[in-house]
Amino acid sequence: MRYSVYKIDAFIRQSVNGFSGNPAAIVPLQEWLSEDQMQAIAAENNLSETAFFVKNSDGIYHIRWFTPTTEVDLCGHATLAAAWVIRNELLDMREIIPFSTQEAGNLMVRALRNNDGGSGLLQLDFPARPGEMLDDTALQQQLEQALGQKVVAICNARDMLVELENEQALHDCQPNLALLSELDTFAVMVTARSDSEGYDFVSRFFAPRQGLDEDPVTGSSFCTLTPYWSKKLGKTQLNGWQCSARGGDAMLQLEHDRVLIAGRCFAYMKGEFALPEAMA
């Protein structure tokens, strides 16, 4: 049996000449494969995330996300990419694409209209994950050693948010991944107020414990970054730039306990794959 697979760049930057955003592999299924099979496929794809989904009888798509080494509870860029595939390849043209998940509850992706009536932006509707501010001198010193930069603030949610002094410090950051992997957290997002026109803040995301040294663009990180910067800047609509080597843009809005995360996708490749005979 052969399976369709799509490689989609999510949260692309339109202002750059070249590939940007975070590539995700998207695998639509008629029925579920085993966890071992899905994990092996994700390892073979060797992208930050491979998303699998099955459309239920009620029209809701159940979605699961796998890094090359583990299943995760929430992933933004692969959900955005999955919605692009559902609309553009499977031709489900509903304005709102509903998803169910293993742990993150129900999610939605909304197709936004441009001024000319065309669709370009897709908007995730995700749960906000505001963190708890930490005042821990030992942890601050540990982070400064791992990041090689002065730490201004620490906020702990599923992932640890670490604010640096300025945008240049974020660009200059060359973390010691071995030291970061010793921290008791899923991942570390590093952020700073932006000096660049059109952006409120910049960020980067490191998850060495999950097999990802640096993630190009991390949709789920904005569930914590958005309430953090909303409170600091006194505004509910924000523009974020995840300034990894590829980089990605997100247009953000905080609505009570939800974060709306909008971005664009680029379909790079589609094809088919087969499982080895021993796995089928």
From TrEMBL:
GO cellular component, one term: cytoplasm
Keyword Isomerase: yes
The protein, known as: PhzF family phenazine biosynthesis protein
The organism's place on the tree of life at top rank: Bacteria
Active-site feature positions: E49
Gene3D superfamilies in the cross-refs: Diaminopimelate Epimerase, Chain A, domain 1
Keywords: Isomerase
